[in-house]
Design a protein that fits this description.
Distance between the termini: 56 Å
CATH class of the largest domain: Alpha Beta
CATH superfamily of the largest domain: FAD/NAD(P)-binding domain
Number of helices: 15
Bound molecules: succinic acid
Structural class: alpha/beta
CATH topology of the largest domain: FAD/NAD(P)-binding domain
Shape: globular
Number of strands: 18
Strand order of the largest sheet: 5-2-1-9-16
Number of domains: 3
């Protein structure tokens, strides 16, 4: 390895951008699949960042809500650490130039989302938080001299020497192959939502970084825990659906059926603002029974063009004025709690290989992520990892370099079949027979494309975990824990 090999970060969403900025003054190459920042899930994030900023709030309360939402499957030390650093993360973003929305008295506006006992979500541009943060961080990366951003680069392989990752091989838009030596490789490639028939994620969220890590032998963890968001805009026949932010329910929107009946009434003490897995599962069941589900946002006060410009725009584009008409919604795959197993700093089980953001699983989110903790994780964990990499040098053995390949992508028709398979077997409500059948169908596809290898790992995890926990609900399991029954309320 050259003494001056850069840190290579794969993925230009918030986790990758923060890691790159925090690694200063070390030299960084940021490899992005597209030529702008609009390809990842970060830019679509609407809610914001959770932080205990309110007068009656504190990090312990934030941590408690995170653990309850996560069904106590969380790494408690990691949760305490994250929540203790949340306020500083908001200040750090402000120092980078992010302009969070303020009340008329100048204080930060705090929104409320599902599972939170307090209003604690800071947001920017109303519901355009992700876009504002990405825009600001991209500007910081462009100004900082230590980061070279290389766009339209598809990372196809990891290079290993002496058992440690020492670089990547990437293909540019013209098909030219680039081998890049690295002092460390960070995967910040996002989630797997686009492997499901309906998702709030962008089409590229197919687990490409997970597949790369798996090819190098990195351990995975909690792969069965997939979060479904209860409110994607119901556009029949579409795979990637616009998100209808949970913050709308925080501002008074309610679920109703065709007859105007409130759907979450009596289902959970927090009703429409119950933890996301509870709400999504109930809405999923309603949809499976043929009930059309609506989000009635008639009670939402204020100027939508300032508070919810993104939701307003996507609804108007679909011919719905959400200020006057209920919004048709369906659940959709939203966030992967599982991923490449990492320690508290972001180290995978393979020396030289790191992971941060949704592709990583550090145990923070447990079995179900608390709303608006994902951008928070990206900022806090990205900062810690970048700072570490600026000083840490992974010891390397001499020897020949070999590469491990992510491999070919599934042909489009097979990818469509895989999405339908996962949706049917590994959605919000699962049971053993369908999971086994799906695994039997999917297993022979593993040689055809990396998405099938990721999907099989997820199905195996779901089969092995016979008990319901958080977002992983097994309708065929007898004796779901009493904690789970409490979380489910009357719908258990
Ligand atoms: C939302 O705005 O509803 C999503 C926020 C999140 O994923 O935490």
């Amino acid at each position: 390895m050259s003494a001056h090999a850069p840190i290579v970060i794969v993925g230009g969403g918030i986790a990758g951008l923060v890691t790159a900025l925090a690694a200063t003054p070390a030299s960084v190459q940021l490899l992005c699949r597209h030529d702008d920042a609009n390809d990842g899930a970060s830019v679509l994030a609407q809610g914001g960042i959770a932080a205990a900023l309110g007068p009656d709030d504190d990090p312990e309360k934030h941590a408690r809500d995170t653990m309850i939402a996560g069904a106590q499957h969380n790494d408690a030390a990691m949760v305490r650490w994250l929540c203790a650093h949340a306020v500083n993360a908001v200040h750090w973003l402000q120092m980078q130039g992010v302009r969070f929305d303020r009340d008329t008295d100048g204080s930060l506006q705090l929104g409320r989302e599902g599972g939170h006992g307090h209003a604690r979500i800071v947001h920017a541009g109303g519901d355009a938080s992700g876009a504002e943060i990405v825009r600001t961080l991209c500007a910081g990366v462009a100004q900082g001299g230590h980061v070279l951003r290389r766009s339209e680069m598809d990372t196809e392989a990891l290079m290993l020497r002496g058992g440690a990752v020492c670089g990547v091989r990437a293909r540019d838009a013209r098909g030219a192959v680039h081998e890049i030596e690295a002092s460390a490789v960070v995967l910040a490639t996002g989630g797997t939502g686009a492997l499901f028939a309906r998702t709030t994620n962008p089409p590229g969220a197919q687990g490409s970084g997970l597949a790369l890590g798996m090819a190098a032998g990195a351990q995975t963890r909690d792969m069965e825990f997939v979060q479904f968001h209860p409110t994607a805009l119901d556009i029949p026949g579409r795979h990637c659906l616009p998100l209808i932010t949970e913050a709308l329910r925080g501002a008074g929107a309610r679920f109703r059926d065709d007859n105007g009946r409130l759907l979450m009434a009596g289902m959970h003490p927090q009703e429409d603002l119950a933890p996301r897995d509870v709400v999504a599962r109930h809405i999923w069941r309603m949809c499976q029974c043929g009930v059309r589900v609506w989000l009635d946002a008639g009670a939402v006060q204020g100027d939508w063009t300032k508070r919810f410009p993104t939701v307003l725009a996507v609804c108007l584009a679909a011919g719905i004025d959400p200020r006057r008409t209920p919004i048709p919604v369906v659940p959709a795959a939203h966030f992967h709690m599982g991923g490449l197993a990492v320690d508290h700093h972001g180290r995978t089980s393979v020396p030289g290989l790191f992971a941060v953001g949704e592709v990583a699983c550090n145990g923070l989110h447990g079995a179900n992520r608390l709303a608006s903790n994902s951008l928070l994780e990206a900022v806090v964990c990205g900062n810690r990892l970048g700072t570490l990499l600026a000083v840490e040098r992974v010891a390397r053995l001499r020897g020949t370099t070999r590469s491990v390949e992510r491999g070919a992508a599934l042909p489009e028709a097979r990818l469509g079949a895989l999405r339908d398979l996962l949706w049917a077997a590994a959605g919000s409500v699962r049971e053993g027979t369908s999971l086994r059948r799906a695994l039997r169908v999917c297993a022979p596809w593993r040689g055809d494309g990396w998405q099938a290898r990721v999907a099989c790992r997820l199905l195996e995890g779901a089969l092995q975990r016979a008990q319901s926990l958080g977002a992983h609900y097994r309708s065929d399991t007898i004796g779901a824990s009493s904690a789970m029954r409490r979380r489910m309320g009357a719908s258990a």
